[in-house]
Structure formats: C-alpha cells, structure tokens
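To fix ideas, we quote verbatim one protein's residues and fold tokens.
>
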Amino acid sequence: MTQKITTFLMFQKGDAEEAMTFYLSLFDDAKVIDVNRYGPGEPGKEGTLKHATFALAGQEYMCSDSSVQHGFTFTPSMSLWVGCDSEEELERLYTALLDGGQPLMPLDSYGFSTKFGWVNDRFGVSWQLNLP
C-alpha cells in the first residue's frame, strides 16, 4: 500500500453528514466515497457518521461525528486552501461558506493575489479562497 495523507474533519455536534453534504454541493467534482454509521448499542448517536470519506475536486477527505466530547474544535491555524478559476467562483464559495460562519479576511486584494477571502464556515472549518 502506498502511503497517503488525508485531511480528517472531526465533528462533535452530530453535524458531520450535514457538513459533508454542504461541501459536496459547493464543488462540481465532488462525491461520497464511503459512509459508515453508528448502529444500535455503539458509542455514537445511532445513524450519525462513524466514518465517511468524500472527495472535493479530486482531493479525498474523511469526517466523523466523535462519540467523545473534546475540549477542542476546529481552528483557523489549519485551513483548507481553494484555488479558484474565476472571480465568480471565488465569490460564490465565499458567500456560501460565510452563511452562518465568520469572516476572517473579507474578500479583497491583499497584494499576494488578485482576490482573496478567508472564512470559518458554520461548522467551524476554516477556508482560504484565492484567485491567483
């Protein structure tokens, strides 16, 4: 087996599937690869995601609903970087991700790109959107 590194998103409020479905709706080249749910008698809430794998723009991600509450959550120090092909795409993604979320850097030209925006989405996941 070839070694592979995959981003893993751990959710604690039972919203991993909602987040995954939302992310899949944002990108044309997106698909669910595998879903495994908690069943009766297992430590997580029945029906929530024990583990799921999905792909966005050819990159695989994993996510789960943690059955254990932790003293930490997502932080902007680790973010998902999206290189956008057009200003329209960048603005569409920024607007969608900002809905219920928090802007970290509003859409603007910051000198290192044509247009850039950084946002924490409503699930707490941090996204940097760039138009080279």
Q: What stands out?
A: The first helix runs from residue 16 to 26. The first strand starts at residue 7 and ends at 11.
